């Protein structure tokens, strides 16, 4: 080890590059001792590069590389974190392995070849090429130290060998800055948060690359950001608008170095009052879902953008996941811990609107993971779903008339298929004078929007598993006592199903009954309700129709079936199903063979009269969709005019 120390000292005193420039590294490496409660509990080498001309970039600066190799020769680490001016570059896995191997090789080969040991500290890949080209102990040391294998994986390029993720020190996420090798840019968009989105195409599929506003801050702006963040963390800023006050408190730096105070303030607010870089993803109108699978640090965040699941260049840190979990506990008032390892809650998006959060943590998973689903700020309507191709106008007309005339219906499909969206759209098809009681644990249905246009809607909240709140069954029984009217259950999934179906069977609700349920078709739903939830088949027969949404990339209605009951058996008749050109009628309705259509006839109407009503409703919905009058207030106004005419 004394020989390696001499080589280190020689490297420091030489301090001259091949071009003659002074390139002495002034990075200060320190090993961080992990605390037992720290979620980032790996051994980490933290490198302070504020005073180093090379900036601690290990992929481009040989002297900085030598400093880190020397530190790792004495002690292993699972990651190297280089910090400079409020920015952190993180090297882990293969990158750290190569640096550790270089340190081992340098220490062992010095007795055979001092110049090669010196080169290994600054240029591990070059030293590996030289060593593997030899025979004898030098080549064996390259193999036994792991240097040869690390260099082979790198394919001779430092950008590959020492790739890193980058982020602000105030953030709980890291980014890969470069697009995938060989990628082709196919789309570029600007977001309202100041971020830029680029979509790249590769042989393995498309990639979603995010460049947040914070990535474009210069050194002075990042220093101002860090100083303002420290003031907030220390509690030095009070009163109203603490983020603004914290930034203004460092405007001496801003005045001196022309810092964009507005940009610094926006970034600070996002990382202290918002959800960090996730807010950029939430703000992208093309993104409907954001997934951070546990353990979050092992893989990229993924998004569903325009119906396609894509990997991003964003990585959450474990500390970031822990901070989000703590925030969601505070906001929801629900437990999320080893005792309650799942979470179902909502949080506010960057520009209003709500984001639904599903979480899982130990011991149910290996660490903490989240799925975020965007809620539309504007309520969906049936004409809007016709316009975007979710279902055709004739199928929408059947659903509309059935809901208006007090049918009992279930909307089925897998997670994320759009069940709640369709259920919410159908609420606008209820007669405007109908009182509606909505039972759900997480607010998703458009209760506020219905209130805004004067509809009589009562929400009943149920909490699952924890907290002093109504159980699902108690909430449903309460809803049945809150007056005659339509009943809507956000999701049928437990013991409340028996109460719901008993109410339907005895006619406790004289208006429409709607609910959503997981299932991929009529038989699947029947099995779930009767076998899993314990509802008698005779009670299930109180269901009039079942609408199933597809599980493919585009949210579409896959089928509409009516429920029939004869001789103690439940059967289904398909009214609409998927065809080569989309969802198509099976002809049962038009041939006069639909039990559902027959049941919709009023006392003074025939089956033919109901067909005429369906034609009129189809024409109305088509006109609204074609003329782009699909907003909630416009659809509500159209129904009110129809009722009064």
Automatic annotation (TrEMBL):
It holds the Pfam family T2SSE. InterPro entries: P-loop_NTPase, T2SS/T4SS_dom, T4SS_GSP_E_ATPase. It comes from Haloplanus rubicundus. This is Type II secretion protein. Residues 1-23, 625-645 are annotated as: Disordered. Coiled coil: none annotated. One of its GO terms (molecular function) is ATP hydrolysis activity. Residues 361-543 form the Bacterial type II secretion system protein E domain. PANTHER family: TWITCHING MOTILITY PROTEIN PILT, TYPE IV PILUS RETRACTATION ATPASE PILT. It comes from the Archaea.
